[in-house]
Amino acid sequence: MADEGVKNGDKIKVMYTGYLEDGSVFDSNEGKEALSFEVGTGQIIKGFENAVIGMKIGESKSIIIKPEEAYGERHEEMVVKIPKTQFQGEEIKEGMMVSSSNGMQATVVSVNEEDVTLDFNFPLAGKTLKFDLKIAAIN
After folding, report:
1. Which of 8, 22, 80, 97 has the most CB atoms around it within 10 Å of its CB?
2. Is 125 exposed, middle or buried (0-12, 13-18, 19+ CB in 10 A)?
């Protein structure tokens, strides 16, 4: 039965390393526990899920996922400036992650005397991703 490869409804375990277009690693589970998920349930990004269909235990491959099948496109309207006074004495630095009062995560893009520019886009939005993946188990 497992000879037919991964199909929707299978619970699988995958080892992976994710790269940005510049070759830098943004995520990996090498040396850690395999990523477990049920195929076809939308628990992971669409391009990754589609890529494992038909793969067999022990099989490896490299895939490239465009933004629309990964974390979506960037939206410039999600980059906002707010008065620095909203941070009441907190030390705010470029590159920091902050949470808004409604729980949304944002990356600090820039800080000046008056304003803080926040980007509420998911950090991988708009990026083409490359993954090296290997099927560790199919249940």
Report:
1. 80
2. middle
Where in the chain are the domains? Answer: 2-72+124-138, 76-119
The answer to whether the 2-72+124-138 and 76-119 domains have the same CATH topology is no
Top-tier CATH class for 2-72+124-138: alpha beta
pTM (predicted TM-score): 0.83
pLDDT tens per residue, range 84-129? 988 877 789 999 999 888 889 999 999 999 999 999 999 999 999 9
Nearest partner of 47 among 128, 124, 137, judged by Cα: 128
What distance in Å separates the CA atoms of residue 37 and residue 84, rounded to the nearest whole number? 42
Q: How far is Cα 115 from Cα 113, in angstroms, rounded to an integer?
A: 6
Beta strand 35-38 with 115-119 is: unpaired
Whole-number Cα distances in Å, 84 to 76, 79, 111, 116:
20, 15, 8, 5
The rounded distance, in Å, linking the Cα atoms of 27 and 112 is 31
The CATH class that applies to domain 76-119 reads: mainly beta
